[in-house]
Amino acid sequence: MRGINFLAGLGTILIFVGVFCFKAILQKNTAKDKENREIINHVPVKKYRKLFLLFIGILCSAVGILLIVKSITPL
């Protein structure tokens, strides 16, 4: 299996986990459904959960970037 780099793949997955954590922090509370004209209510994220999501997002993104950089650089 030449050319397959598992560290780069794992790093990419961790970066996406970090992006989804940031997206969950910045999610709006209400949104309108254009098709049915109904208001969809989302449960607001509490402050301590936002801090937890921020910490996990930064951690996953940083580890993902480090894994990708490590897989690119030669030993």
Plain-language structure description:
The chain is elongated and about 55 Å long. It has 75 residues and is mainly alpha-helical. It has helices at 6-25, 47-72; strands spanning 30-33, 38-41. The protein has a two-stranded antiparallel ribbon with strand order 1-2. It is 61% helix and 11% strand.
Number of strands: 2
Instruction: Detail the poorly predicted runs.
Output: none
Query: Helix amount, in percent?
Result: 55-70%
Written as H for each helix and E for each strand, in order along the chain, the element string is: HEEH
The largest pleated sheet is described as: 2 strands, antiparallel
Span from first to last CA? 19 Å
Broad shape: elongated
- Summing up helix and strand content along with how strands pair, one would put the structural category as mainly alpha
Trace the largest sheet across and list its strands. 1-2
> What does the radius of gyration come to?
18 Å
Beta-strand fraction estimate: 5-15%
Quaternary status of these chains?
Answer: single chain
**What's the overall average pLDDT, rounded?**
82
The helix tally amounts to 2
Write the layout of secondary structure elements.
Layout: H1 6-25, E1 30-33, E2 38-41, H2 47-72
Antiparallel strand pairs: 1-2
Short summary:
The chain has a two-stranded antiparallel ribbon with strand order 1-2.
Which tags fit this structure?
75 residues; 61% helix; mainly alpha; 2 strands
